[in-house]
Amino acid sequence: MSRSFDLLLVGVMLLNFLVLGTSRIRVCIQAAALQGVLLGLLPLLVHRSFDWRTGLVAAGTLAVKGLVIPSLLLKAMRDVQIRREVEPHLGFVASLFLGGIGTGLALLFAGGLPLAPEHDGSLVVPASLATLLAGFLVLTTRRKAITQVVGYLLLENGVFVFGLLLLEAMPFLVEVGVLLDLFVAVFIMGIVLDHIRAEFSSLDTERLAELKE
Amino acid sequence: MSPAPPVEAALLLAAIALSLASGLPTLVRRDSEGAARLGALLAVGAGLAALAAAILGLAGRTGTVVDAAWPLPFGRLVLAVDPLSAAFLVPVSVVFPLASVYGLGYERGGANAAARRRTIRLFSGALAASIVVVTVARDGVVFLLAWEAMALSAFFLVTVEHEEAGIRRAGWTYLATTHVGTLALVAMVLLLRQRGGGLAWLPLPEGPAGTDAAILLLALVGFGAKAGLAPLHFWLPGAHAGAPSHVSALLSAVMLKTGLYGILRVSGLLPHVPVPLAALVLLAGAVTALLGVALAAGQADVKRVLAYSSVENVGIVAMGIGLALSGRAAGRPEWVLLGVAAAVFHTWVHALFKAALFLGAGSVVHATGTRAVDRLGGLLRRMPATGTAFVAGAAAAAVLPPFGGFAAEWLLYAGLLRAFLDPAHGLLLAPVGVATLALAGALAVTAFVRLAGTVLLGEPRSAAAERAHESPRTMTAPAILAAAAAAAAGLALPFLAPALERVASSWGGGSEARLVPTLAEAAALGPLTALLSSLAACVLVAALLVALAFRRRVIAGRPTWDCGYAAPSATMQYTARSFSTWVAERLAPPLLGVRTSPGRPSGLFPARVGFDSSTPEPVGERLLEPALSRAADRLGRLRRFQHGRLSSYLVVPVATLVVLLLWNALRAFWRLP
After folding, report:
1. Predicted local distance difference test score (pLDDT) of residue B665
2. How far is A151 from chain B (nearest CA, A)?
3. What value, to the nearest 5°, has the Cα angle with vertex A23 and ends A19 and A29?
């Protein structure tokens, strides 16, 4: 774990704030895409030496999180003609504030964790928790399905960062995680968005309450 | 364990691969008859390979087939054959090809036939492959994965005809039950790991008796749910009656046995068997046998009769296992030998005759379109080949000599009587077992005379039964083959005895190798064979004489029950219910019996009245369902929390997470413990 590694993690955390603070959906998606690219670079820095399995994980992450899912989201955004998240449940300033508190808590919490010596002092755990919390915040406070998918992506990214701790010990689990991302991409985009649009001719998830029994 | 001979390994892997492949041709070309034939051919190949592997294993050529690391972070891929595995490979290797060939005729016709055939082929191939893996897996994780694959394939097979609400319901009940069982098995695998230090299934060293008892209890719950040991049998009649008939044959004759295999396998790993648990297995077997046969005698649905008969037979096999466990607990190799031999041989014979019965019943259902016993009748004349196979299967199920069922129970009787008469310290439960076996045998005769008599003899009770026609040869041949094998199995017992001895001595990882007597001595196979072969000879000679006597004569076709009535009608015949009244209403306790709602005629000019009778499943429909629906009513208030707002649902985990983080951070900050 080097300085450049931590620097990338700081970038990941800053992008969380960008997603929390903006009302433009395009910016949200682009921020998530950039975060995906950063995550794709991280596995390469865990290992000093390059081996093909890590390379595959990195390439898969980059492609899925950085390219495939964001481009699908952008396409969906163009299709349904939505540009802005209006009237979120929680205002943008308040979201930013809560995100800041969450990041602080994550830093505090990680300080008290009994980690393996080689991970001590690195930003992996706080960055992972902060991203998780930001993802949750977006999921709970936004109305549009597309923004909620972005929130879900942030959540996934948080889990992925945590998985980096395991990359050396259990590469298999991390690889399965990447595959799961691919599945989620297809699932969410293909099925959920299409169905919501077909049934309700709107992507406002508030209307989903009509499905309640 | 030493590596198995390469032939054995190749045969086993070929059986797994061919089973899986047998579903593919119809997956690619669903409307092609040729694809279906290719699939059946692959299934026959898989069956032959598995049978060869089983015979090699029973002949003592055993060992590890595969032992390799795999990418999962836990367990290893370990497959091995020993005589016990080989013994339980036999049912799948025989019934799977028979059912596949039978399907060529059975799966034709009806709406959605091609789509249904695709599902049946794909998942019965997966079922057969996973059953093979279950019997040879020697690692906890491999076993659980194969077990789950088996349970899920069976679910898709049960719900093939999911257009009917009743079948969907039976499918969900099955799925819930099997997963509760799997939960117990996961706990069992973890306990085994804790006890032995690894996931590999090797004989355990001496250890705490409490853990061993817990392992055996969990195995009984988990495997008992799959095998259908009472009171965990309630899913079975619905699932087996609702599936297509050749699938029912596969489920009933093969899949149930994996539960019994599991009990034998896991109890074989333990160094000691607690006496109370051995007695529990014996008692559970006895209760299951009686319950199953008493319910079989009252059912109105042909396939439900057969399903309950499977419950009975599972109970009888469990009694054999209970006897073997008691033998290990008390240190009596003779009981172990007879118990294991009875359990394994009964498993084989049951697989054969239950396959014959389900395939025969399938032809009947296919020809008449109904499963109701009281709408059939007179089918032996209309479907001679199917009828003959059905009668032979029923005779074997009714424990009549010289058929295989009799020889299997002979072994169990011999074991129980020897256990009772043991000079040192007899098994107190043995007389209970003997009495149960005798009573179950008598009730089985009633149940199957009722079934075969009502369905095959007399006059048709409905227009559909009157128009019935014989099935194509692809459907009659497998049924006849299975019935003939079930009939001949009793005579083959002396030749199979060495294999059964090998199974018994391998059970328990070779630590029970001090088996003194041979099976032939212990079970008096000499007199048995003399009895069976003379009876078989008598039957054959009588059949020959009858055939000779009637060769030249013209047989006039008259309706049955034509004796002196001016205008006999089919409704004047005895009904199935009237035949079994004494069992289902007088003898059985009210919980098991028939529930009737007679409308009583009244007044001088009574109006039309109806009469309705049903035999609900005692555990599932009479106990569990009312309790569960009451619980659902009580818990209805919780519905308030299902308001449908996604973001509010998500707030709950976020709030929990934040509170936990805060708590942890503050604890670290104030240096609290």
Report:
1. 73
2. 11
3. 45
